[in-house]
Amino acid sequence: MQLLISSPWWFILLCLLTGFVYAWLLYKPTFKDTPHKIMAALRFLSITLLCFFLLGPILVRTITEVEKPKILMVLDNSQSIQASGNNGFIKNTFLKEWYNVKSKLGDDFQVEYLNIGGEITPSDSSDFSAKRTDLGKIFDYVNNTYAKQNIGAVILASDGIYNRGASPLFKTLDAQAQFYTIGLGDSSIKKDLILKSANTNSIAYLNNEFPIEINLIANECQSQSTTLSISAEGKILHSQNIQIDKKDFFKSILVNIPADKPGNRHLIVTLSSVSTEHSVINNRKDIFIDIIDGREKILLAYNGPHPDIGALKEAIMSNKNYEVISLPYNSIATKDIVNFSVAILHQLPSKTQNAKPLISALRAAKVPIWMITGSQSAIELLSLVSPLSRIDRSQGRTNEAQAVYNEQFNAFTLEDNTRKTLMDWPPLITPYGQYAASNSTEILAYQKIGSVVTNYPMWTFSNQNGEKTAYLFGEGFWKWRMLDYVENESHTASNELVGKTIQYLTVKEDKRKFRVYPLKPVFEEDENVKFIAEVYNASYELVNTSEVKLKIKNEAGQVYDYNFSKNNKSYGLEIGLLNPGIYTYTANILGSNESITGKVMVTALQTELINTKADFGLLRDLSKKYGGQFIHAENITSLSELLKKNDKVTELTYFEKRPDDLINLKWVFFLLAGLIAAEWFIRKYEGGY
What we know:
By secondary structure, the protein is an alpha/beta fold. It is about 25% helix and about 35% strand. It has 14 helices and 38 strands. The two termini are about 40 Å apart.
């Protein structure tokens, strides 16, 4: 303990002198009487102390704090623990000892229980239901939650299997803590058939076939056979027998299933069990696919043969959502125009034929147009497509121009590599003249003629009066596509340019005043299913004055009702977790007849059941890395003694010097009040005033 004042120490003499003078002047005439001597002494002390406190004395005390070591007990709560086949021991013996560690360690330790799955959460109970395991989250959680605390030890009870995130060996524990691991499960190879994966596309097209790639593993099942079956709605779509010819058997199978029915479909892939199989839970996979009735049809009309036509067709067809019909312009029936989502006019109107009937029919049917110019184009007739495609003072001349990406372009976003590659490609043959599209369109790329970057557009877009149009002023796209493959060993950049152009043209403006949609079309069963709703007024402004309701129906026909919550000017709804399956939803505004229906899919997660062989090697490496110890689950009773004997798991003592103004102490107030009260009492008793 230390006493400090803000003034020189000799000021204390002034305090004593002030107290003495005050008492002497007040009690000098009667100083010979004992009561007056006592009162003089009391007055001297009270005045001296008051003067002393005016000096701002500070009392510095040394505070000793003892922090007990924290023991973090982290339990792997995933399904793979339960699927290991040792449930009796884990639930009846291990868990009892696990939660008894706190009482065994006593008051000298602070014990906290946590569960790890896809996330880490405080919990003193377990049900082994987590469908993912991310052991690396332990380190992030400890580092963030217990920073600068006395973490004596982290105890991880797990089978060492993780299927999300990076390896925990790559993580770092900031605290100087011991890391103990307890091995759960069984590390031996059991007789087991495992349907490792069954993958397919998220969408397929009606009357086509869609592939399902199936990978299966068989351990210790040699000389036996299993039947692979694919079914939907109780009907077997595919079945085949598989002979297992070795202990560590692996087989990859590709099965094509006909897409003969539109809509969302739920397919079940199963392997029949073999005798004395360890677990049959991992013999099944549920997959979901959306079968679409038809693709977007793209019309590619041309005046004559050109290598650009084949290059464009290949780029468009790289997206399975598009079907390209390429025809000479004079063989296209105008009655079929309405069947197309986009029309590409390659060098139309041409010098020989203006193709006016075709262009008029496209505009009448409100089919978006992508106009591409070239040496066959009639430059003076381009305004037939759009006034913005007009090029004045061309006089039939051309330029060789490279593309320069416009950083201000915001109609859509291109990948960084595509933007860079675009400017490295060879020049196109572009028309010379004054472009009407220079100032009133979204320009993706300008023309660079020689070393000069002009304001002439090369690739541009417009949307006027509901008519969407794209313009490529130049021929030679086939050279871009070839060089794209030479430089990138793929057609990614050229495909993206064409694909984004088609996408821009095919996207239709949504004029609905009531919209409801799930946050994404497919959720996994450990994800919360969320919906968003939007209501617009006559001016297409977001409003949320009405109540919005949603009904959701599962495949069994059960219906559940929900109310949307208002969020700023829109609506939100979080349903929570749903069982795997296809759900139909219907949303409506309360008091209105308008409703919206749709579907959302929830896929099954079986990640934890694919591999149930414990990885004790990983657990040993973790404990070794942090100076801890690996313990088999059967020896958990020794854990508390190991912790008590570990001299690195100990309490920490902190010494803190804590300053405090002396006048803030309560006893100072009572001392001064007591001195003044005692003097007053004696004066009254002696008859003084």
